[in-house]
Amino acid sequence: xxxxxxxxxxxxxxxxxxxxxxxxxxxxxxxxxxxxxxxxxxxxxxxxxxxxxxxxxxxxxxxxxxxxxxxxxxxxxxxxxxxxxxxxxxxxxxxxxxxxxxxxxxxxxxxxxxxxxxxxxxxxxxxxxxxxxxxxxxxxxxxxxxxxxxxxxxxxxxxxxxxxxxxxxxxxxxxx
Length: 176
Prior knowledge:
Structural class: alpha+beta
Helix content: 25-40%
Strand content: 25-35%
Radius of gyration: 27 Å
Number of helices: 3
Distance between the termini: 62 Å
Order of helices and strands: EEHHHEEEEE
Shape: elongated
């Protein structure tokens, strides 16, 4: 009978105990992985990291020189005042930096972002080219009330394209 540590209360228990005599948790024995298992796991991670690095470097070097030149020219070009999608993509960084804290400060209690890794906090936009303003819309946040019930909120943030500052911010309950 060997002694080990309980996974819940961290006190010594028998490795064959069905329940912990201190806290009552079932199967309390923590059996650490063997050195072979740990080394095998590390080896797998290293091999996967090498494969990912190799794939990433080979994909980025596949571009021809003409494609690289075209991409560089595209980055240098500015968006037309009426090209909403280009302006949306160009100004999304300013919207995230300036508008997301406004959304978070609007929560009376707790909040939770529901956007995923590949989703944006702002999913729609309206361009007012006469005023030079771009309004972003989103519904990827849930606010909690005093009873921890969560409600989806819709928010809009208007950015002035010349100053890149927030002109207007609104938030209300609901979905887009």
